[in-house]
Write a structure and sequence with these properties.
- This protein is 70% helix and 4% strand.
- The chain has 213 residues and is mainly α.
- The protein has one domain.
- Strand 1 and strand 2 form a beta hairpin.
- The longest helix is centred in the middle third of the chain and has 28 residues.
Length: 213
């Protein structure tokens, strides 16, 4: 396990660990490749899940930590769907083509994210009170829960190659900037800003792919 005591450099008076740096490089590479529609992004996504699990466990962000095994499963499913599209769903490269959702489905996704975030945030809050020795009080549980549900939605949409996933990632990264700052992470908010830029790039790239399909 990496330790947050192993500091590579300092930023804003706080240290940046090797674990944070490795997570950043792997995550940015994954998103950049996903934005270009390259299925190789999933291999970087697998590594990213393991690194984030360790990082969030150190920071007591339990919701984000528990999210990683689920994210790993979604990555595996997405990897298969991208590389094994059904008849009529493939693009010119024989991979899953980019599509969009209907308005009712979009509305349903928003409602589910908010509802599940409220439920999960309450559970996180209660866990810290019931088992304080095993789980120190979670930091900003409801914000953490919202990010968790938004990430799951974005990943699920990414796995299905729905262009709306980039809107979800934009919301996730904007919220993450606040979450990371409140959690005491200095380097990660800057990285989230980089993810925002990549989300705009990904949306533009996928929209172009849709027009070419």
């Amino acid at each position: 396990m990496f330790s947050t005591d192993f500091i590579l450099f300092r930023m804003g008076g706080m240290g940046v660990s090797l674990l944070e740096l490795l997570s950043v490089v792997t995550g940015l590479t994954c998103v950049f490749l996903a934005g270009r529609g390259k299925s190789i992004n999933f291999w970087f996504g697998y590594v990213y899940c393991f690194l984030l699990f360790a990082l969030f466990m150190q920071k007591h962000l339990y919701s984000s930590m528990i999210l990683q095994p689920i994210s790993l499963i979604i990555n595996i499913i997405g990897h298969y769907k991208w590389t094994h599209p059904k008849a009529g769903e493939e693009n010119k490269d024989k991979e899953l083509k980019v599509t969009r959702m209907s308005n009712p489905v979009r509305a349903l996704n928003v409602i589910l994210v908010v509802l599940l975030a409220l439920i999960w945030g309450w559970i996180l809050q209660e866990i810290g009170q019931i088992w304080p020795d095993a789980f120190p009080p979670a930091k900003i549980p409801f914000l953490d829960a919202f990010v968790t549900m938004a990430i799951l939605t974005a990943q699920f949409l990414s796995a299905r190659k729905k262009i709306e996933c980039w809107v979800a990632w934009t919301i996730v990264n904007t919220t993450n900037i606040v979450l990371y700052i409140l959690a005491g992470l200095v380097f990660m908010p800057i990285v989230s800003a980089c993810y925002l830029v990549l989300a705009f790039f990904g949306f533009s790239s996928w929209r172009k792919q849709m027009k070419e399909q």
